[in-house]
Amino acid sequence: MVGDRTRGALELHDIQRGVLSPRPTPYAATYVLLRIDDPAHGRELMRRASAVVTSAADSATPLGETWVSVAVTYHGLRALGVPQDSLDTFAWEFRQGMAARAKALGDIGENGPGNWEPPLGTPDVHVVLVALAPDSARLETALARARPALDALPGVTAIWRQNCHALPTQTEPFGYRDGIGNPAVEGSGVPGSNRLEPPLKAGEFVLGYPDEMGGTQTLRPEVLGRNGTYLAFRKLHQRVGAFRRYLRDNSTSPQDEELLAAKIMGRWRSGAPLALTPLRDAPDLGADPSRNNTFLYERDDPSGYTTPGGCHIRRGNPRDASVAGSPRLHRMIRRGTAYGPPLPEGVMEDDGVDRGLMFAFIGAHLGRQFEFVQSEWMNSGVFFGGGDERDPIIGSDHGRRDFTIPRRPVRRRLHALPRFVVTRGGEYCFMPGLRALRWLGDLRD
């Protein structure tokens, strides 16, 4: 019976919508972290959540494009009373938690858990609730409707909140258009953003279905794991003034400054990829979702003369590059949401205001997806011949952060890049299916 179901179509009605569906634009969102002090109240929270979480089969909720997603940490599952023999079937990275995995992820020095924003990375984080709406007013309306239900559960305490937003320009704090890439997942009904990339097996992103290697990730009991997935979220503070200064100080003209920004990212700030427009920006291309992500590397630019092998987007998704082994095995669904007010245009000094990106990874394989990309692609350059070079945007603190731009007749080498992004914290979570939320709600001591 289980084998037959794994070969069936995706059960969209049981999968949380935040797993597969790209977010609308513009939107406002908030992350709320909860601590469970009373297991009975925590279970009641799961029961109530199962009734309000939006499924992937729902085109809209009664509030329109307002979604609610719920995820639970390992400590949260223990606080709910999940039996140990079930807990032992979760991915071992999830059981350890993100703070314990800091060294493997490059979260050292200034990025280390000792410098994280409390309570991020602590055993107090049990439940992550994410709410999203078309604007701040409707988001607050939705939260106001939900607040009485939470207030009636004194054994569940809200311990942290981070408001986020997507601007109408769809840009993140450094000024780049964001939210461009989205993989196609078999059976999801959601088209991918790269028409040259075949859809990936559903099991790469949702437990209970075959993945690219033919395996199926399951938990015990099956109802707990099926249609769930893992979520890694990180709060990343961005030093926008430092980034702007670095571009200015290492450029000969405003045009050269924009080209340098494009070489570091792999895209012009409009979103237009270097792979399709290497010499000048093309804002119309950057704003066209049918074209701005449809390209490959190995076929047209194996040496990185157009899109450097060490730039941010090529590291994060090498696409068809054979030197990266099998990039499809490390593909992720990425959700990035800006927080904090923008630094005014032209300002070159950071003003002390907290701004950056709430990053969320979604996938069924924490180890070979999120952790592999962080350790082998972002914090190493071996896979493309870049030695110990690290990602110029989010590379780890360890050693010098150099960046090479291939060009003829002589390459350009940037030395000792300052740190532009600082990890303020994060956690590994599990996003259950809707049936699993009800199962968690029905647990007994």
Tag the structure with descriptive keywords.
single chain; 445 residues; 2 domains; four-stranded antiparallel β-sheet; 15 helices; 26% helix; disordered N terminus; Dimeric_a/b-barrel; iron; peroxidase activity
What's a concise summary of this model?
The protein is 26% helix and 17% strand. The protein is of the alpha+beta class and 445 residues long. The chain has two domains: 2-179 and 205-236 and 428-441, no CATH class; 237-355 and 369-426, no CATH class.
How would you describe what is shown here?
The protein has 445 residues and is α+β, with helices and mostly antiparallel strands. The protein has 2 domains: 2-179 and 205-236 and 428-441, no CATH class; 237-355 and 369-426, no CATH class. The protein contains 15 helices and 10 strands. The chain has helices at residues 2-6, 17-20, 39-52, 74-80, 84-87, 92-96, 102-105, 136-151, 222-225, 240-249, 254-265, 283-286, 312-316, 367-378, 434-441, and strands spanning 27-36, 67-72, 127-133, 156-166, 229-238, 333-339, 356-363, 403-405, 412-414, 421-431. The strands form 3 sheets. It has a 4-stranded antiparallel beta sheet with strand order 2-3-1-4. Strand 8 (403-405) and strand 9 (412-414) form a beta hairpin. Helix 3 runs antiparallel to helix 15. The longest helix has 16 residues, at 136-151. It is globular. The relative contact order is 0.19.
